[in-house]
Design brief:
Elements (H helix, E strand, L loop, with lengths): L2 H11 L3 E10 L9 E4 L5 E3 L6 H15 L3 E6 L12 E5 L7 E9 L4 E5 L3 H12 L3 E5 L13 E5 L6 H10 L4 E4 L3 H13 L4 H5 L1 E2 L11 H18 L19 E2 L6 E2 L8 E3 L2 E3 L4 H12 L1
Parallel strand pairs: 4-5, 7-8, 7-9, 9-10, 10-11
Antiparallel strand pairs: 1-2, 1-6, 2-3, 4-6, 12-13, 14-15
Length: about 300
Amino acid sequence: MKVLEQAAEKARRGEPFALATVVWRQGPSSGKQGSQAIITADGELRGWIGGACAEPVVVREAKQAIADGSARLLLLGTPDQFGTTVAEGMTVVPISCQSEGALEVYIEPVLPAPRLVIVGTSPMTRTLAELARALEWSVEVMAGKEFKSGHADNRTMVVVATQGHDDEGVVERAAAAGPAYLGLVASRRRAEAVLGYLAERGVAADQLARVHAPAGLDLGETTHEEIAVAVLAELVKLRASGAVALPPSRSSLSLLAPVTVTDPVCGMAVVPDQSAYPFTHEGVTHYFCCAGCRRSFEESLVS
């Protein structure tokens, strides 16, 4: 399967990944202008970017791009190759492998769309769903009796708008899932009654403290369309401020940037594992970006 086809398939499945593209090269680099690769959540590279020195750098930077959600433009080579020609915003990563030449690589993270589960079947919920889909969010609407804790997780935003039909049961099941956001659409008096009932039932105080009740920005007396706008506005505001952050999924903790050490020859950051050409000298284990750097280090010890 071609790189872009794989990327489209991963996006369809909601899997985070990064797309890396070579936008410039200087020989004798093995990477070619226009070469592309996707880097998966576990650091697997599919496609072609460059050789032994370029590839681990791209993988490391791609994983960090997925973790922080920011694209980056890398310039791979030796600093003396570029001088004062480095444009603002570029990240220069020195590599010493002579066979790599120089590469300019653009890395763009592709992250799953925000997921919103709306519980309730009123005209307001339909309006809220339409507005959220206009933002290209992933939206699911279901009746209260259909909703189970398994419909949400720590990357899901849940809005309960069941209009008095088992509000307590739905909120309790939703809170147990630990969603990124949980809001109850209700009057302030009704919201206090629901939370008070759940507290008496023994629902943990920290779970109840995370419930936004009433959900949405306070607009006073409004129509159901305006309530939908108020709820979505609160979600957008909280996401933009970082108050509602969607963490890595529980199965994707490998997105976190790995611990690295410095290659003593070229200065590159490498992950200290068996793939990094370990060499122990005087009780200290050194790691390298490629076999060439390890060989240079060994030769320096006998010269």
